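ok so i was messing around last nite and threw this chain in just to see what happens. nothing serious, just curious
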Amino acid sequence: MKTRGILTFVLCFLFAGGVIAADVGSGERNKQPIQIKSNTLNTDSDKRTATFTGKVVARQGDVTIYCDRMVIFYSEKEKQNEVDKVEAFGNVRILQGDKIGLGGHGVYVSKEGKIILDDNPKVYQGEDEVSGKVITYFLDSQRSEVTSDPDSRVLAIIHPKEKGKDGNKKP
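result:
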């Protein structure tokens, strides 16, 4: 039970293409501007994609994503410039406050409101850590799943917080 609570707290991340914090509804997430910097940008109107390559840095609100390559997939033509899915490849690092998500690959699926980190994913908040084979966070329901494989298990390292004289946890 304690692991589930820390996962929900730790995995409150943004993924480029329109995800803000978990307590913001899906309509509000898409309203903040996204700034993406990279060495190159290639677009394909027929495939409805934009590919950013080389030292990619994407920012939206208080969240920043770093990766080697980012591909943005846009929805069908009747929904002009609506993001359907975003994939980040290579050295994926997602930062929000003291929360850090790491992995070799990450996907944000807009319609399902979920972020998937895989390829050795780990999520940190302060000294606490969660890792597994795949970490999936469902933004609108503020729940998460961490799965393992036959060769490894889910790992959660949670450090107890000190309590002050009044019995409340210290920050």
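not much to say yet. Helices lie at 2-10, 26-29.
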